[in-house]
Amino acid sequence: MRFGLIWSEVGNGLRRNLSMVVSVILVTFISLTFVGTAALLQLQIGQMKTYWYDRAQVAVYMCTQTDNCQGGAATEQTIAAVEKQLESPELAPYIQKFYFQDQKQGYEQFKQQFKGNQIADYVTPDMIPQTFWVNLKNPNQSDVLSETLSGSPGVQSVVDQRSYLDQIFRILSTASYTALGIAALMLVAAVLLIATTIRLSAFSRRREIGIMRLVGASNRFIQTPFIIEGVIAALIGAVLSAVVITVIVQVFVRGALQNSIQSINFVSMEQAWPVIPLIIVIGVALAAISANFAIKRYLRV
After folding, report:
1. d(CA 290, CA 227)
2. Count of other CB atoms within 10 angstroms of residue 247
3. What is the rounded CA–CA span in Å between residue 95 and residue 136?
4. Four-point Cα dihedral 238, 240, 244, 247, nearest 10
5. 73: helix, coil or strand?
6. pTM score, two decimals?
7. Could you tell me which of 33, 61, 99, 172 has the fewest CB atoms within 10 Å of its CB?
8. Do β-strands 58-62 and 95-101 pair in parallel, antiparallel, or remain unpaired?
């Protein structure tokens, strides 16, 4: 009978404050969707770092006629000298492989990369530097290559591609943290809204609460229906958020994005699964805590 009475009170409370319950569901849904999206973005960043950092190359750019190099444009002799250095006993232990790209090959790659962009119309082959592309056994040891070759005759610069990747990952991380910040603000709004809903529900049933106290009902028995109301509303919002995140991964990420950008290995549903119970637990826990706090304060008043 006590169990049936509690659920009867829960049903009455949800019906009486339907508009507020819907508001709690929507705010919880939006905030947890932001939390899940930020978590997925962090997973994607970690996966991309593991993949691209291992494949990042060090580019040894040779001087062109347009560069302000002290010795002028690179010659066959300076190119051969750099190649000899790369094959030397000092550098060879650090290098997995390397290859040379002349200006014609670099120009063809540039045109392919910037196809449809007006900048391709203003670039000529002599403006593209001849380049040694070096794969290191340990990408973290690129400083050895830079210190050895920088300043060598005919060398314009030594660039670790990971510096470009760091900029991209920094932008992605900023977007992720921004989404997490918005999610935190939305969760605070959800907590305050749940607390307000519970107190309004308790106020609308103040007569029933007074009768329960007169017949000797415990505070825990009185509080339980209100806590369950908040948990149910948050749980519905969390489940909706989980459904949306699943659709995002399956349809948008693994579907449209994966088909259009096949060079990137996007997060899979197996990797995203831990995020779903996480957001559900966050939603339910925050709802239970805020509802319990709100009804306790109301009963003390």
Report:
1. 8
2. 12
3. 4
4. 120
5. coil
6. 0.65
7. 99
8. unpaired
